[in-house]
Amino acid sequence: MGLKGKGKRLPDQLSGGEQERLAIARALVNSPPILLADEPTGNLDTKTGKEIMEFFKSLNEEGQTIVMVTHNPENVAFSSRTVHLRDGMVVNGELL
C-alpha cells in the first residue's frame, strides 16, 4: 500500500492519499467478501486517485468484489459493470 516506514506516524501526519490507502488496508485486512468504497478518490489528487483505482482493478482481477460509489466519470473506466442512479432510481445498468 506504499506505507512502509509510516507505522509510527499519527493520522494527521499522513497525506490524504496515505490516509486513503490506510483506510483501504484496514478494510481489506480481514478478507471481506465485498469491499464497499464510497468516493475512494474524492479527496485525492489525480495521480494518487489513479493509483487507487489501478489497485482496485488489480484486486478485482484477483477475485475481490468491489462496490464503489463515485461521481468521477474517469473512475468508470476501471469498472467491469456500471449502474447509473438518478434520484434513487436505476436509470442504466450495463455490462461493459
Describe the fold and architecture.
The chain is of the alpha+beta class. Helices cover 30% and strands 24% of the residues. It has two helices and four strands. The chain has helices at residues 16-28, 46-61, and strands at residues 34-38, 65-69, 81-86, 89-95. A two-stranded parallel ribbon has the order 1-2. Strands 3-4 form a two-stranded antiparallel ribbon. The longest helix is centred in the middle third of the chain and has 16 residues, at 46-61. It is globular, with a radius of gyration of 14 Å. The two termini are 28 Å apart.
Task: Summarize this structure as a short list of keywords or feature phrases.
single chain; 30% helix; 96 residues; two-stranded antiparallel ribbon; two-stranded parallel sheet; alpha+beta; 24% strand; 2 helices
In short:
This protein has 96 residues and is of the alpha+beta class.
User: Secondary-structure element sequence?
Assistant: HEHEEE
Global outline: globular
Amino-to-carboxy terminus distance: 28 Å
Count the beta strands.
4
Please give the order of strands in the largest beta sheet. 1-2
Percent helix range? 25-40%
Q: Please indicate the percent range of residues in DSSP E strands (runs of 2 or more).
A: 15-25%
Number of helices: 2
Give Rg in angstroms: 14 Å
**How many strands, which pairing sense, and closed or not: the largest β-sheet?**
2 strands, parallel
Structural class: alpha+beta
Stretches where pLDDT is under 50 for at least 5 consecutive residues are none
Average pLDDT works out at 85
What kind of assembly state do the chains in view correspond to? single chain
